[in-house]
From TrEMBL:
<feature type="region of interest" description="Disordered">
    <location>
        <begin position="18"/>
        <end position="42"/>
    </location>
</feature>
<protein>
    <submittedName>
        <fullName>DUF1684 domain-containing protein</fullName>
    </submittedName>
</protein>
<keyword id="KW-0732">Signal</keyword>
<dbReference type="Pfam" id="PF07920">
    <property type="entry name" value="DUF1684"/>
</dbReference>
<dbReference type="InterPro" id="IPR012467">
    <property type="entry name" value="DUF1684"/>
</dbReference>
<feature type="signal peptide">
    <location>
        <begin position="1"/>
        <end position="20"/>
    </location>
</feature>
Amino acid sequence: MRIARLLTVSTLAFATPTLAAPPSKPAMKKPAESKPAEPAPFDLEAETRAWHQKRIANLTSEEGWLSLVGLHWLKEGDNRVGSAPESEVVFPAGTPAHLGTLTQKDGKVTLAVQPGVSLTRAGQPFTGGELGASESEKDVLALGSLHFYLIRRGERLGIRVKDSEAPARKQFHGIPTWPVSAAWRIEGRFEPATTPRKISVPNVLGVVEEMPSPGTIVFTVNGQEYRLDPVQENSTEPLFIIFADQTNRTESYGAGRFLYTDPPKDGKVVLDFNRAYNPPCAFSAYATCPLPPPQNRLKLRVEAGEKRYGDH
């Protein structure tokens, strides 16, 4: 710390006056070093509840899975669309009896709109044309509270229909869960695949899809070792785990549950089963969910995460 010196003058004999010392300069203090903020302690209960609230918000949104009211597979050639019972693609009551005609040809689908029917796509009037097979805004058609778009599942093309006024969305009453438990937040060992590989993942349509899997997660419960094969599109995305366990018989959704976890770090992966959640098929007969591959069927009761919803 730098301190200014005080200058003094010697006392002279007899009448020589004493010179006043100049005022001292204030001490220059070294700024205190700022310490990094202490990370907030991890509160598993609060973090899990916050995560689940966000999950429920997505599920119950106007475009969430609870708004799903229809899934119609298209035949080759013309498919009539509307609420009329003779339509190949039957829309909910209250929509036009004859909305238009969907034509599938050579892997492409076009819609000819019936005169007088007002459709929009991405907020702009849509009078007909080719449909894109995606859920992005640019491909979604709207008619009042109804939204519909083309989906592709293997070789099949279909129309998925959502309604923001769907009874399932309006009557939703929450999802029961097991109590949050630190015992089900488990650190596992990640064994990377030595070569690029894919695993066979079936779905409710009876189709088996080959999906990329970066390796295997090995974890222990009560001294017993278990293994799960996640899927992952690329190394920066979370690991996606489709698993079944012995609670599926009575307490949790019968077809299994989903779980996401961060990519491995230093060869470790944290499996937080408190965030295990029901697939869309637990809420709607119109979803096309993947099912747990055989190696992900655990001989274990995972008493964590979401329980069964309603009578599903």
